[in-house]
Design goal:
Blueprint (H helix, E strand, L loop, with lengths): L1 E2 L3 E3 L3 E6 L7 E5 L2 E7 L2 E5 L4 E9 L8 E9 L6 E2 L27 E4 L3 E6 L5 E7 L1 E7 L2 E6 L3 E10 L5 E11 L11
Parallel strand pairs: 2-8, 10-16
Antiparallel strand pairs: 1-3, 3-6, 4-5, 4-7, 7-8, 9-11, 11-14, 12-15, 13-14, 15-16
């Protein structure tokens, strides 16, 4: 028999053992993974493809008809965590993350933008599971269930790092850069 986890998460590794009354050799074959005829009583598999996968072990010295043993493993996807970015008033032009010399030699950074000093509530797109938030560039952070309320600094850059453990016990992580823009100053001109 093949012993090991029947359910795994994509990109996780697990050890599988083959137990037999014969002395082998035992040749492993795993669907979706190139194995190059791995021989032995155990194998560590790092799952790279989600879906139903099959582990097959050929016992070369087993009695005829008992050479092949299989085990089905369900590999669950662990997609990134999507959060909802609310729309807020426009601040000054996007210049706080440009190069110090003003050149654009490196590609522009594609960040979410917020106004400096603003307080924003972020919610996960799919609220199922348990969420962990790590916020940089904020003056205050508070939590309400799976949501997070962030008060951003006045100007600069920040990050939202969020991880989730879903119903399949798979962990997913995502990081979002935040460009904190200068709040426009109101001005009025009186004419006589």
């Amino acid at each position: 028999t093949i012993q090991g986890p029947l359910v795994a998460c994509k990109d996780d590794c697990a050890t599988y053992n083959f137990q037999s009354s014969s002395s082998g050799p035992f040749v492993w074959n795993i669907s979706g993974i190139e194995t190059d005829n791995i021989i032995g009583e155990s194998i560590e598999i790092c799952w790279t493809e989600p879906g139903n996968q099959t582990i097959a072990v050929t016992d070369v010295t087993a009695t005829p008809g008992n050479h092949l043993t299989t085990l089905s493993v369900t590999v669950n996807e662990n997609e990134g965590v999507e959060i909802i970015f609310p729309l807020y008033p426009t601040c000054e032009s996007r210049d706080s993350l440009s190069n110090p010399d003003g050149t654009q030699e490196s590609p522009p950074i594609n960040c979410q933008t917020v106004c400096g000093g603003s307080s924003i509530i972020y919610n996960p797109f799919n609220p199922i599971g348990s969420y962990q938030w790590d916020i940089e560039g904020a003056t205050n952070v508070s939590f309400n269930g799976n949501a997070v309320n962030v008060t951003w600094n006045e100007l600069g850059a920040g990050y939202i790092n969020v991880s989730n453990i879903d119903d399949n016990m798979c962990e997913a992580q995502s990081s979002y850069c935040i460009e904190i823009l200068e709040v426009p100053e109101a001005s009025a001109t009186l004419s006589a």
